[in-house]
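Quarterly update from the structural biology core.
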Amino acid sequence: MISLVYVSTATRPISEQELLHILDISRRNNRKLGVTGILLYSGGRFFQVLEGEEKNVLDIYQHIAKNPLHRSPLVLSQGPIQERNFGQWSMGYRHVDSAVDKEQLEGYCALLDRNMEAEEFSKKSNALVDMIYQFKEMM
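Predicted structure, tokenized:
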């Protein structure tokens, strides 16, 4: 079993309704494949953790990377795991654009607010991965 964490930039503005539609489809597909995780959306960027059997996780990531909705997908972290961190969710979700969310997130470092290309996130990947996992505690 592996965990894969990536960031990508939306190629166009995405409405909350569209995000919820994407989430619904993702949850159905993930349940079938035994994949769990969390999706964060902030400032036109997707931050996602996928957990499950290696083939299934990599297949889903490749599908996402080819999706025209995503630009510059970048894997921040990938590796084997002994147990799932998001085992109870086929796909947890949080739209992180409100100040309340940011104030409640311990260690929030404003990286989600910066207008950076996905490649620039690689320099701060550890901080981003830690922040994504902190959202689990807020949900």
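The CA atoms of residues 9 and 117 lie 8 Å apart.
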